[in-house]
Write a structure and sequence with these properties.
The complex is a heterodimer. Chain A is of the alpha/beta class. Chain A has a single domain, classed as TIM Barrel. Helices cover 34% and strands 19% of the residues of chain A. In chain A, the strands form 3 sheets. An 8-stranded parallel barrel of chain A has the order 3-4-7-8-9-10-13-14, surrounded by 6 helices. The longest helix of chain A has 14 residues. Chain B is an alpha/beta fold. Helices cover 19% and strands 36% of the residues of chain B. In chain B, the strands form 3 sheets. Chain B has a 7-stranded mixed beta sheet with strand order 10-9-8-7-11-12-15, with helices on both faces. In chain B, strand 1 and strand 2 form a beta hairpin. Classes of the chains: A alpha/beta, B alpha/beta. At the A-B interface, strand 5, strand 6 and helix 9 of A face strand 13 of B.
Chain lengths: 299, 251
Amino acid sequence: MKRHGVKLAGVEFANPLLVASGTWGFGLRFRSASDRLGGVVTKGITLEERAGNPPPRIWEFPGGILNSVGLENPGLERFRSEILPRMARLKTRVIVNLAGSKAGDYPALVEALEAEKVDGYELNLSCPNVAEGGVGFGQDARTVEKVAAACRKKTKRPLVVKLTGNFVDPAETAQAAEAGGADGVTVLNTLFGLALDRDGRPFLGARTGGMSGPALKPFALYCVDRVAAAVSVPVIGCGGIMSGRDALDFLSAGASLVQVGTASLVDPDAPVRVWKELRSLCRGFGSWEEIVGRARRTG
Amino acid sequence: MRSVRAPVVANRELAPGLFSLWAEHARTARDARPGQFLNVKVSDGPDPVLRRPISVADVEKDRLRLVFRAVGRGTGLLGRLKPGDEVDVLGPLGRPVRVPVKRNAIVCGGGVGIAPLLLLARYLRRANRVTVLLGARSREELILDREFRRLGTNLEFATDDGSFGHRGPVTELLGPALEKADNPVVYACGPRPMLRELVARAGDVPVWGFVEERMGCGTGICYCCAVKRRTGGYVRFCQEGPVVKLNDIEL
């Protein structure tokens, strides 16, 4: 394959490898790795600063983790004044993940960021770790469409909706996102999880968390396959990608881009390693189009 | 940031369930400072997924010493490593302790918490008057006492069962040590109840401590290792710690 670029709503990404929101901070800790990727999806930003959930915030099980960080972030203003200037020198695409506690927060965030040098937005309609909004929005197709449409009015930049797989058919919410004018959908966010300590008490400080890691891959792959058949906008695959082979599977299932998440917590080198492995696995192909969605073309 | 594979040189059980592992890696050994930790991969597969953060207990030329309690599957796998095996480590991570000069430093450790204080005491004794207080449940469980003795600092012991040194918690040794010291500063590592007790007994003396909290990445990108600040909000202890001023956080 000669050209590795991928387009999303007219914007070119140098390669299809992105990092998932919340697993890579703001791309600043490992700058040179960020610069070798197609793009960085930031930690979720809310209008107001959020302190996050009480600890413990992480629990482990064979094949994955639960987290309950709870969208700890500096809020829109400090993101603009303190973090974005430091991100300006990143030589990669910057997608800002946006989170709200009410539907109106999302267009307000988009509007506020239009003057800034960012490349696109990912609407987090699927965070399982906050009391208000978050996953509640993503479980209702009408809300997904409404939020996507309200944001669409504010921007021409790439607009992606991050979907949930919790008690909802992501094909339906993906269609709603497309109807609202989204340029793509990320499939998918963490799944609900509960961990108990020895005495039967919830282990996580926030009581429940979101599941991620390699154990999620078959379900995420299933959802990508299902969503890709239901919409015509690009799908961004996410869920347990640890290797180039995992990334390739997501492309084959219908994803145009992929996000590496939990793997980065184990190895900061993981996103770049996954990209290198994917690149060498795809050497015999002429273009990404030959790979994307081939699982459905071949039965 | 790349992890490195370090050959295991020795792995020995110091006390029941407490292991001392020496691994060799020149650059990591050269860079490691008191207060820092290595994030250690314990499995090649996805069980467990995450690395295990372990403080650097000591450094000798190209070698690093990790002392840990084998409590679960992850650290259990580490305990089984043998010379000739390799261990995949990321680090050193975390913010090094700022080593003062010309202070009366009181170093207080309990249980496996004694371990990271060894490297710290080595640095402290160069330019400070150092008193080391070490506690364990029993003489059998007391670790690294010989290494501390070789440092030549003031040294006192406490065991819960009285089998060695003072009978009772090591925190009871703090008061008398503070009385003898002007301009003191305390460094501590141990179980949370011990740290809480130390902060209470220290009054307005600063207590710098190694805090243990569940950790995700160890590199500051996941925001999982939150420790509550007294004035509100959280400290990411893999970034601002792991040694933080205990007087400022909710233990």
